[in-house]
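User: Could you check the structure of this?
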Amino acid sequence: MSFNLHRSLNATRVRVFFVLILLLGGCSTFMHKNTAQLMSGMAEKYTVPYTMASHDLALACSMSEAFSAFFLSLRELINDENTLPILFWMMSGQCDAEKAWAEELRYLRSVYMEDTAGARDALFSEKRLLMQAATRYWRAYQEAEQYFQVDIGQDCPSFRNEFEQLAWLMAMLSGVQAVYYDNRAERLLAVPLDIANKAGRAAMCVEGQQWWGVPIALHAAVQMTLAQQDQVERSAAALKQAGMIGVEQGVRLALVLEAQVYLNRGNTEAVRRIIASFFMMTPKKLNVRWALFDKVAQLQMQMLSDRLWTEATGSRTPPGMFGRFWDETEQNQIDAVDIEELL
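Assistant: Sure, the predicted structure tokens are below.
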């Protein structure tokens, strides 16, 4: 009888042990999910807005590349869709685009110096980075397809808040950029070409006046690229209008889109005019909330200036010469600088 009692007590202990394991495991899972939801909510409410208000592009790149996998993995745990992946993939694509621009300048310098081997190496490196940028931009667009569950280019989603509008607009920009960079990488990724047209139309789902003229500019840029000659003037006027809205609101992204369109059309004079206007048209008021986007616009316009300068002179835009060019009177001052003064 004593033996049976001992066996009964042992069996009870075993059952209690397994119950505790199950409870602790369930508690752990519950805690993990709660923590994941808390961190995801904090990122959307605090981390991303803080980054968007920053002037530090390097910080934004580091944040997006370092935390993308972390926050995307949280989504798997809590089984909840949000717009964070759209913004993370878009910003990561911007980081790769910056690296590709640096390689483009190296290529142009090598061509200027008639360094065939250096030019070839820079070109190959640029194409790798262009393909990576296109991949990330495409992922941003695909995340929007998954999250909003609408036929992009045909239907507009019902936005719940301003953050969703921003994510939608960034996804449409990313879609156009994915096509553009993939084309420059000789279509190694094969991003569907119709994405650009869909994204251009879908950008108009958000208010152009509210979002710095970018929806108007994106739609007009795509139309100007694809339209017949008789529609080009209308698109050009819309681009100009969008640029003025951006200047008024303190985010000059629309001007960058206008310059890129003319660059793709081979109209260098128009690009020079827009670059000069960009650096003369300082926003009337600083848009503190979205400062990062105006900083991105400055970087991209600087890159366009560097590209023109490097093609013509073998080096990027000299300090203090943004908005001006090598064939203007100030060039005499540049030529007069002794090399020892630069060292």
